[in-house]
Amino acid sequence: MYWYRITPLDVLMFRDAKPFTPGERAWAGSIFPPNGHTIAGALRGITGDSAKFQIKGVFLAYEDTLYFPRPLGFVGSTPLLPLGWIPDSPLSQGYWNPLQPRPLVKPRTEGKRDEEDEPEPGYFYRQFLPSEAIATYLKTGQIAKPDWLTQDQKAVKPWTVETRSHNTLEEGTRQVKDADGYFVENAVRMAPGWSLAIALNQVLEKTVIQLGGEGHRAILEPCQPLEEKWQAVASVSDRNFKKSGKAIAYLVTPGVFERKQNQSQATCRAWPWEWKLAHTVNGNQKPGSLVSVATDKAVAISCRVRETESKQGQSKQSIPAPQVFAAPPGSLYYLNQPEPLFQDSHTAPHHVQRWRQLGYSELLWISHEDQ
Question: Domain ranges in the chain?
Answer without folding.
Answer: 2-370
